[in-house]
Amino acid sequence: MYFQAPPPDTSSYMIGGYTIFAVVMAVYLVSLFLRWRNLKQELSLLEEMEENKQ
Amino acid sequence: MKSKPRFLTILDIASVLLLAVSAYLALIYAPEEAVMGQVQRVFYFHVATAWVGMLGFIAAGVAGIAFLRTADLKWDIIGIAAVEISLVFFLIAIILGSIWARPVWNTWWTWDPRLTTAAITELIYVAYFMLRQGIEDPDRRARFGAVYTLVGAVSVPITFMAIRLFRTIHPVVIGSQSAQAQGGFNMDSGMKVAFFFALFAFTVIFVDLFWNRIRLGNLAQKVEQLKLKIMS
Question: E strands within chain B?
Answer without folding.
Answer: none
